[in-house]
């Protein structure tokens, strides 16, 4: 009976290990040699009472364990020391761990309040709270840095799309025009190559599906890419509006560490997206683009070029008017 009870406790322990998904398989049952050694007290990281053979300490630090702390750990009722610091655990601390006299959980992603059942652990609240606050501040700092980087990337992206050109000098506009012209040449070359592959595939498909079907598919693909282009324009306009609008107060950030991490990942994706879109406007990073994508991209570059040239014409016109005005003033002065 006693042996069965002991085995049940170790089944709980194994379940706990399996429940914690690990990054890059940093820890697995094979690595801690569960099958080879029938005595769990000999497993690495496990300490048992020499007489009762019950688990009194568990140490799995620096194992890249990821997941919530399961309350089933509390069923190891003789567990007194639990060391899980420097992993990737998240969620709250289970109240079932109230039997422990020492918990080492720093450098994880734990959140929430300390359960009242752990009131006897005087050092735990300070340790967990301090670590949680420090991590949250690090996440917020990362978010703010990424937001600033994205703002800086938005400006050239807008200009390469022929937007937000007010206040640029003639030389600055000329530089943008040159980049767009060079990009358009490359995009048109890639579009021609992609169209050859597309037309070849279309001929093959039309034999089976009919020309009407392939024509319809082409139109739908072009229409879809055009909608994406309009959406990108709307996003740029909204982003510029938000960037230029006065900020009344500091942004409020979540206290949920998982939500903060998701925000960071989303901002990283947006940063990468902006870099890619800007590169494509100047004829780079075009690999893998379909004929429809390249066709619409060429249209976007052409539209941006027209906007840039219009601004350049305005500057030239303003300079000509100013020159004529100065000449007229000089002539009138000589007549006087």
UniProtKB/TrEMBL annotation:
This protein's GO CC annotations: nucleus
Chain segments carrying region Disordered: 237-257
Domain K-box: 135-193
Superkingdom of source: Eukaryota
Signal sequence region: 1-26
Pfam families per the UniProt record, alphabetical: K-box, LRR_1, LRRNT_2
Gene Ontology terms, MF aspect: DNA-binding transcription factor activity
Domain Leucine-rich repeat-containing N-terminal plant-type: 36-49
Key words of the record: Leucine-rich repeat, Repeat, Signal
Keyword Signal: yes
Keyword Signal: yes
Annotated protein name in UniProt: Uncharacterized protein
Organism of provenance: Brassica oleracea var. oleracea
